[in-house]
Every structure is written in C-alpha cells, then in structure tokens.
Design brief:
The structure holds two protein chains of two kinds. Chain A is mainly alpha-helical. Helix content of chain A is 69%, strand content 1%. Chain B is of the alpha/beta class. Chain B has 18 helices and 23 strands. Chain B is elongated. The termini of chain B are far apart. The chains are: A mainly alpha, B alpha/beta. The interface between A and B is large, with 49 and 60 residues.
C-alpha cells in the first residue's frame, strides 16, 4: 500500500517545456511580490500588489505541477480578494507583528547573529556590493530586512533571465550558482523560522499566508536550483 | 477524508463486492466523499473532482496500476489537495484477482482502512520534505539546456529540530545513512537533499522519532500496522504482514496476471525501500499478532539503500531469535522477487497461529516507540519461551548490552553521549551511580568512543533476562564533598585518577582539589 508506484507515466504532464527564461522571469516577479508584501502595507503599495497578483494569477496555471503551487495560489487569491478592503486591518497586523510589538523580527541578524548583527550586515553589504548594488539611502530598513533580501533574489533572477535570453549557458549557470549561494547563505537559513513564528503569532492571518507561501517558494527554489546545477555540472564533466 | 473505488473492481478477477465495501465505509467517510466510478486506472483523462479535495486526504482503490503519477500529482495540487495526502491501493492485484470474492472483499476493507489510517497520519507535504527531480532526456541537446525538463517530486527525510537530540550529541541518523546525506552542522543535523534517496533508514534508526519521511513517517507506520493487525470483525485470520519495496511491488502485483495466488492473510505494506524495515518492525509485527512477516526487497543495482546485506542480516537475526525461543523461524521470511512462481510458493504456507491477537494490547505498543524493541523481544518470549534464560549474540541484534569494567570515574561522558537515556547518572548525598536500562539501549555504541578511561564496551547481544531486569546499576562510587560548603566535589575514583595523573610532587594542589568544590576553590585562593 503506498502513495506511488514506480511505473512509467502515460504522458508528460506539461504540454510545452517551460523555457528557463520564462521561469526566471516568473521567479523574478515572485520574489519581488513576496518582498513587497513584507513591507508596510501602505495603500498605494497594496494597490500595486493586488494588480501584480491579478496578472500573475492569470499566468500561474502553467505552474500547476510545482509543489509550491497550492500556497502560491492561496497567496495570490488572498491578495486579489483584498481589492477594496482597505488597509486598516493589514496595517494593524503589520504594526503588531513586525513593528510596535515586534513579535517577529523581519531581520536576518535577529535570527542568525543576534549578538553580532554587524556580521550579517557586513556579509550582506558584501553580497550586494559584489553584484554592483547597495541599499538605497532613502530606504529606511537595514540590508538584512526580509524585503531587501527577497528583492536581491529578484534582481539575481532578472540577471539569470537575461543570460538565458542571450543563449549564454555559461552566464545562466553562473547566475544559478549565485542564486543558490545567496539562498543557502541567507534566506534559506532563517526564513523558515520566521514563517514558523509568524504562523504562531498570526494564526490564519494575512501574514501567515504570505510567509508560508514565501517559505514554500524559497525551499522549493533552493532544491530546484540544486537539481539544475547538479545536472549542468554533470553535463559539463561529461563534455570534458 | 474521501475514497474513490474503481467500479471495474466489481468484475475484475473474482471481483469485489463494492456495495458491501461502500456500506462498510459509511461512517468512516462522508457520503459525499465516497465514489464508485471508473478510476484513473481505467480512464486516461480521469480528473480529480474538487469536491473530493476537502484537504483531509484521499484513498484511491484502483483495479490496476496503469496511471500517470506526475499527472495525478499535478491534478491534486491544482484542486488544492496535498499529493502526500493521497494513498493508492491496487485492490485489483492485491485482492480481486488473487482471492475469491468474499475473502478479497474482506481483505480490501482491511487495506482501505489501513490506507485511511495512514493518510490521516500523513505529514503535510512541505518544501523541506520533498525534492524536485528533473527528468532530463538522456541525450541532451543544446536547446534542451535552455528549458526546464519535466519535474517530479520525491519525498526526502525531514528532521523536526524540536525533537532532534543533535545538541545532546546524538548522531545515529548520520551513521545510519548509507549516502552520507546527513551531516552535522554547527547546531543542527543538516540534510543534503541531493544525496537523500528517501530510503527511510534514518527514520527507523532515529531514537527520538524526530525524522519524518512522507509514506513511512512514524505516525503513519504505527497507524497503518495497528489497523492491519486489528483483530476486529473482518474474517481474515490469521494475518501476516508483507513489507514490499515499492520497486518490487509490480512483481507482487504481477502474480495476479500470471494466475498465481497466495493466502489472503498476507497484507502488503509498500515502503519506499526496505532500508526502513528494522528487526524491531519485524518482531513487533509478530508480537502484535501477525502470524508471519515477509520482506520483499528489490534486487536493483540502484537500490535506494544499497545495503541489501543489512536487510538479510536483520531477517537472519529475527529467525535465529525465534529459534532461540523455540518459535518457528519461518515466521520471518526474506522473499525473492526474481522468480514469480517461487515467490507465490514461498507465500503459500503460513505457520500456525501461536497466539490470538492480544485484546489487552497496551496503547503504546507500536513499531515506533522508545521501548518497542524490548517490548517485541519480551512479548514474543512470553508467548513462545518457557523461561527468559536465553540470549543471542548476533551482529544485527537491535539491542546492545553495555558493560563497564573497573576503572570508571563516573565522568558522565557516556551518559551525555547516549541518545536514548539508557545510561543515566544518579546522585544522592553520598553516592553516584551509573545506571543502565537495556530496554532503552539501541546498541549504537555512541558511549564507547567517548569514554576517556576506555572501560565501556557494548556487545551485540539480546539477553532476555537482562532486558526483563529493567534498570540496573553498572558502577557505583562515593561522592566526595567540599569541606567548606558541602557541595559535591567529584566521585572518589575520579579524584584518585587525578591523583595518579598529578603525581606526588603536586600533593599540595591535589589536596586542595580533593577537599574543596569549584566555587570554594575560587574564593580560597
């Protein structure tokens, strides 16, 4: 008795293979969406989030085979259905969870190096600097804020999409390595704990859905990047 | 919870009485969640009904195994159903085609009930317990390198950090993993998903039951086996458990196509790999009332576990143990999937039932429980052996026997290394005592290398009288107390050891160390 038996598939579940360019573009958008959703829910920001969510919802059926799909669609649906709901409840929840009472900190250093936050900041500044980026001075949050790290992943995915669209296998793989490295050194290490804490404090609320979906997405992304890289490295060693 | 039964089961082989099954399932699943229709085994475009996905799980009773797993999983996700919350039972091959109608129907009920129990206890699918596997074409073209190949998901082990004893020094899972997928990191046991094959060896090895693997998580297996061996009203007696490697399941299912039959008593339990099936599992099934236990391995070169000799060793141990008790050793069988006729022949006979399934079975009696091994060994001894004066030395003994030679300083290193608390240190005003409970010992030998005096040893021996004894004292010593405040300084043997290391030229220092406790030494200097 078991869930699955080792038998061949009758057919492939996806009609046309997903181009890596398209996948990278989608991931770019998803990381940005998650990052933005973890910033203060001002009205203008929420309106644009809803608009992007609506657009992504229409494109998401192509992603149905991915394991993050259920949480992802739940997150999008929640955003889309928020239209015209105002921001008061979200602002209250955000203040309570992340700002005033700080039940859950949105900062990596609070999870990984609570006694020496400067170590995390320096490491992140180094990562951003190596990619030619720096946190804008107008942005009031430190470089280890979840939204900044997610935005950085979005940036890396954008670079990856560019590489694939130029048909540069070398650059594409290099970007995959950069993404896997950043996730492994940062987000993948602390975001699961953040999501768990949010779920504990916020029950079934909006931010539980956001962080759970982001957690599923990040975990999936890390494993998918590892699988892709392993294949490319094997292929490279075969060619040599 | 929902159940879909393929209507072709009514006529396949000897057939199943589907209406009787529907009636029997009433109360177990809602009316809405019960369907009899042509299933994905018969309809290539069978679609999962949204109404069935109430989020609590789904059991599919199919007439054959012809359906696409990735397609089905994608469908499940689309309707919001966790694919790990779906249990598929091939009722055609396991029941309708191999047993006459009434037996087949009764067996189908048992298998369905066990599937429902397993689904109910299934851990939720999450990014941590699955890994994507890319189904690359063997002949990669340059173009294909720019597209994502089809993805399917395989379950991998997931460690619940809150339950893991890593910080107490436990490394049992890491030493068990045949692929070195588990490696100690700074403050937790890290899993390298790319190396994990999902064999489950770590799941059954973990003394804390802190590892989940969808399909064989501790809760699922406990629930499934308890249900299969529940002596309730269904007329399948005696009952035998057949652990089947998922890769050999088609062989067992293929017996039906060959017109080969075997007793309905054999209840199949498909596991991802036999690496998860320990001797404790085999013996505890017998202890829970199974008349026999079989294991059907895969013989493939790419076996997930890759250590067939361990499975053979575990079975050999169980058979020898049964012999020592005077019980029929063929109650535990290693089967060969290579020859279907031989397989059917090996399944055809069953030993006589020595005991009725116990009605007074303790609630904590399960395959995964801190004392499951001792429970199984002593339970079987109670049934078969006139006395407990029996022991068996065997390299695959699931329990060890710790002995401590003279020279122990009661430093507690072994106590801290023991992942099951089989070794404990007891202190009172005057004495320290190193105690040992063989019923908790898993013979992992973690205590051996950490002993600075090299006086601890572990023998792979199943000693029933010692198991029955419970906790015993292995070493006892007086506790030397501080002359100034009365707090403990150290056990006497330890101070003697320190004296031996310092030598007579340090007599002053030694006297100071032996008379005062740590804090008083600080204030006196």
């Amino acid at each position: 008795m078991a869930r699955r038996s080792p038998k061949p598939a009758r057919g492939k579940s996806r009609a046309a293979p997903l181009r890596l360019t398209d996948l990278a573009r989608f991931r770019q958008a998803a990381y940005r969406l998650f990052g933005t959703a973890l910033l203060y829910p001002a009205e203008e920001r929420l309106t644009s989030l809803v608009a992007v969510a609506r657009e992504l919802e229409q494109q998401s059926q192509a992603l149905v085979e991915f394991a993050f799909f259920p949480q992802w669609t739940r997150f999008l649906a929640l955003l889309v259905h928020r239209e015209d709901s105002g921001t008061a409840d979200l602002e209250q929840a955000y203040l309570d969870l992340f700002l005033v009472h700080q039940k859950v900190p949105l900062y990596e250093s609070r999870f990984l190096t609570p006694k020496t936050p400067e170590l995390t900041m320096a490491a992140l500044d180094g990562e951003y600097g190596a990619a030619g980026l720096a946190v804008a001075t107008s942005f009031k949050e430190p470089p280890d804020h979840a939204a900044v790290e997610l935005e950085f992943m979005s940036f890396l995915c954008g670079k990856e999409a560019e590489a694939w669209s130029k048909r540069s296998l070398k650059d594409g793989v290099k970007q995959l390595e950069a993404e896997a490295g950043f996730l492994g050194r940062h987000l993948y290490l602390w975001f699961p704990v953040l999501a768990e804490q949010v779920a504990r404090h916020a029950g079934d609320g909006f931010y539980t859905v956001v962080t759970r979906a982001a957690h599923d997405f990040i975990g999936h992304d890390q494993a998918l990047l590892d699988a892709l890289l392993m294949q490319y490295h094997q292929e490279a060693s075969r060619s040599v | 919870m929902a159940v879909v039964l393929c209507q072709e089961l009514e006529t396949r082989g000897f057939g199943l009485d589907l209406e009787a099954i529907r009636e029997w399932l009433r109360g177990r699943v809602s009316e809405l969640g019960m369907r009899i229709e042509r299933g994905p085994c018969c309809v290539s475009r069978w679609s999962l009904d949204k109404a069935l996905s109430d989020g609590t799980g789904l059991v599919l009773g199919l007439c054959s195994h012809g359906y696409s797993v990735p397609e089905f999983e994608a469908q499940a996700r689309k309707v919001g159903l966790d694919p790990f919350g779906v249990e598929v039972v091939n009722l055609g091959a396991y029941c309708a085609q191999v047993h006459e109608r009434s037996q087949a129907t009764a067996k189908a009920k048992i298998l369905l009930e066990a599937a429902l129990a397993s689904v109910g206890a299934s851990p939720e699918s999450r990014p941590d317990n699955i890994k994507p596997v890319l189904l690359w074409d063997q002949t990669l073209s340059r173009r294909s390198l720019f597209t994502l190949p089809p993805v399917r998901y395989e379950p991998v082990a997931f460690i619940r950090k809150g339950d893991c004893a890593f910080t107490e020094g436990c490394r049992v899972c890491a030493t068990t993993c045949p692929r070195q997928a588990l490696e100690p990191s700074e403050d937790f046991m890290a899993l390298d998903k790319t190396r994990c094959t999902g064999c489950g060896a770590c799941v059954s090895a973990c003394p804390q039951q802190a590892i989940d693997l969808p399909g064989v998580s501790p809760q699922q297996i406990n629930a499934q086996i308890a249900t299969l061996l529940n002596g309730a009203s269904l007329p399948i007696h005696p009952r035998a458990i057949l652990f089947v490697c998922a890769r050999s399941a088609p062989t067992l299912q293929g017996l039906a196509d060959q017109g080969l039959s075997y007793p309905a008593s054999w209840l199949p339990v498909e596991v991802p790999c036999l690496g998860v099936v320990t001797s404790t599992w085999l013996l505890q099934c017998l202890n829970l009332g199974a008349v026999a236990v079989g294991v059907l391995p895969c013989l493939r070169d790419d076996c997930r576990y890759g250590k067939r000799e361990v499975t053979e060793g575990r079975v050999a141990y169980c058979r020898e143990f049964l012999s020592v008790l005077g019980a029929p050793p063929d109650a535990v069988r290693l089967l060969d999937p290579r020859d279907e006729r031989e397989l059917a022949r090996a399944l055809s006979s069953l030993p006589e039932q020595a005991q009725e399934p116990r009605a007074d079975r303790p609630r904590d009696m399960a395959l995964f429980a801190p004392r499951a091994t001792a429970q199984a060994l002593l339970g079987l001894a109670e049934t078969f052996a006139p006395s407990l004066d029996r022991s068996l030395a065997h390299p695959y003994s699931p329990v060890g026997m710790v002995t401590v030679k003279q020279g122990c300083t009661a430093c507690e290193s072994c106590v801290h290394a023991c992942p099951t608390e089989a070794l404990r240190m007891h202190r009172d005003q005057e004495k320290v005592a190193l105690t040992y409970d063989p019923g908790l010992c898993i013979g992992c030998e973690s205590c051996v290398p950490v002993c600075p005096e090299r006086v601890v040893s572990v023998e792979k021996v199943t000693d029933l009288s010692r198991l029955a004894q419970g906790r015993v004292t292995l070493h006892e010593d007086s506790e030397i107390r501080c002359e100034a405040c009365g707090a403990p300084v150290a056990p006497g043997a330890m101070l003697k050891r320190i004296a031996g290391m310092l030598g007579p030229e340090d007599a002053g220092t030694l006297s100071f160390i032996t008379r005062y406790c740590n804090s008083c030494r600080g204030s006196l200097t």
